[in-house]
Amino acid sequence: MLVNKIAPHVYQHISYLNAGSFGLVPCNGLVIINKNEAIIFDTPTGIDASNELISWVENGLHCKIKAIIPTHFHADCLAGLDAFHKKNIPSYANDSTISLAKAFNKTVPMNGFSNSLELKVGNQMVIAEFHGEGHTKDNIVGYFPYDEVLFGGCLVKEKGAGKGNLEDANIVDWAHTVSKIKEKYKNLKVVVPGHGKSGGSELLDYTIDLFTFN
């Protein structure tokens, strides 16, 4: 597991998933910290890496983890959820993510929300929000207004990426969903995709173009 600081209060965590035909894939998540509290988007890709991240946040950053938020039901978002639950760290997810986790016999997040969730980290707001279908029918994004950071998860592609795993995708709505995100969050400084290098709003433009079919 690797961690990079990408904004004053935000770290990108990176772990690796053996994704069959896609090979060993680096998977991103986010750690947002403020006033000795932390909120995490997406677990690392397994229990060991998740325990490593939890230990680093608690012992390295000296922050209490208030929430873990998987952004959709695939393994690159919630495979390490049991590690968080064993530490009594509450998990939050889109209601659809909870339904899909149950259907596929995965660890189920504790708390559901329908469209958006606002949680405080320290004295600042963290937002998890559903804007529409794309990579999956349940995919949400994470937004931290204080540093203008967006975690797009697998809904957003790094520059130069292909379409990736489309097994559960809605390729008809994908571009429209990302367009809504671009319209809502106009002043982004950092955009983090589910896989690969972070960038700015150009990642939203790239993703929109990738899934626009004439």
TrEMBL record:
Signal peptide: none
Limits of the Metallo-beta-lactamase domain: 26-195
Pfam hit, one: Lactamase_B
Required co-factors: Zn(2+)
Record EC number: 3.5.2.6
Main localization, broad class: periplasm
GO function term, MF aspect, one: zinc ion binding
Annotated compartments: Periplasm
Gene Ontology cellular-component terms listed: periplasmic space
Catalytic activity, as annotated: a beta-lactam + H2O = a substituted beta-amino acid
GO biological process, one term: response to antibiotic
Keyword Cell inner membrane: no
Enzyme class, first EC level, given as a word: hydrolase
Domain of life: Bacteria
Subunit composition and interactions: Monomer.
Family: Belongs to the metallo-beta-lactamase superfamily. Class-B beta-lactamase family.
Name listed for the protein in its UniProt record: beta-lactamase
Lineage, top ranks: Bacteria, Pseudomonadati, Bacteroidota, Flavobacteriia, Flavobacteriales
